Amino acid sequence: MKIDIARLLQKKRSQILENWMTNQLADAGLREDLMSNDDLREQSDELLTNFLNIISDKNIGDSQSSDFEPVYEILSGISMSRARQGYSPRETGVYVFSLKDALLRTLQTELKDDPGAMIEAVLKINRLMDSMGIITFETFIKGREEVILRQTDEITEISTPVIRVWDGILALPIIGTLDSARTQVVMESLLQEIVESGSTIAILDISGVPAVDSLVAQHLIKTVAATRLMGAECIISGIRPEIAQTVVHLGIDLSNIVTKASLASALRYAYSLLRLEVKKVQNKHLL
Fold it and tell me: For 72-96, what is the mean pLDDT?
């Protein structure tokens, strides 16, 4: 007698859900700080209900069937959400494969007297759940990549602040490696601030740049050129001895750019361009 695997699992829905929840709650890596047990049960119940409503004797052996698209969409949403919340790949994998364990346990219990039917059912569920596992990890990786890209953009914006140090003077301290993408962010931020503030002098401080090679130098030259097109003078500060040696060794021509060893030196030069004078005033206390 042929066993209708789909109907058997549908009848055992409550038992499968309880076994699945038991598997998840027993895991040492359960993240109750990211999701409450009630929310986890609700999420699991939704996925299992949709899965059991869709599964049939016709599609159970075909994991690529379009019938499963609604289930895969729900699973992808869960996986993407977990990636954004901070779950690890292992924790996300446990979520799916603990359902697989619950399904297989039910089949083994219900079909223990029919080894042939049990083997057939186990193989079909194995293939179906493995496909769901692949979708889970693919979506999780995609979600993680989106998080990393967003964080990278945020860090880039934070690490390239344009500071108004004086009326008409801007300073942009650059920390870390200066590549093409970051150069674009630096130029956009600096040029926008020049327009908004009406500044005529911009200081690029590279004290926090670990090394300067020909590519970094070209990025700096492009930034200086863009700044000048906006009508502002650009000064590069933070030229350490090792950077100066590297620039000379590489034959990079920075002769038409004002360079200073420190930000303080660059500020003094900027003040002189604006005909400003900074003096130290000694406090006189009246007795």
Answer: 91
Q: What is the per-residue pLDDT for 174?
A: 84
More confidently predicted of 136 and 175:
136
CA angle 80, 50, 121 (to 5 degrees): 105
How many other CB atoms are found less than 10 A from the CB of residue 100? 18
User: What are the residue ranges of helices labelled H in the chain?
Assistant: 5-11, 13-26, 37-54, 69-85, 89-110, 115-158, 180-197, 214-229, 241-250, 263-273
254 in Cβ contact with 214 (< 8 Å)? no
Q: Does domain 163-273 have CATH number 3.30.450.40?
A: no
Task: For residue 156, name the pLDDT band (cuts at 50, 70, 90).
Answer: low
pLDDT band at 284 (very low <50, low <70, confident <90, very high): low
Q: How would CATH label the architecture of 5-154?
A: Orthogonal Bundle (1.10)
Tokens of 162: 């344009």
Q: Do 163-273 and 5-154 fall under one CATH topology? A: no
The Cα-based distances of 20 to 10, 102, 253, 281 in angstroms read 14, 5, 67, 75
Torsion angle, alpha carbons of 260, 261, 263, 264, to 10? -90
For the chain, the distance separating the N- and C-terminal CA atoms, rounded to the nearest angstrom, is 110
Q: What does the domain layout of the chain look like in residue ranges?
A: 5-154, 163-273
Does this model's pTM top 0.70? My answer is no
| 260, 239 contact by CB (below 8 A) | yes
For residues 87 and 73, the answer to whether their CB atoms sit within 8 Å is no
Of the listed ranges 15-24, 231-240, 247-256, 258-267, the least confidently predicted one is 247-256
Is the CB of residue 168 less than 8 Å from the CB of residue 200? yes
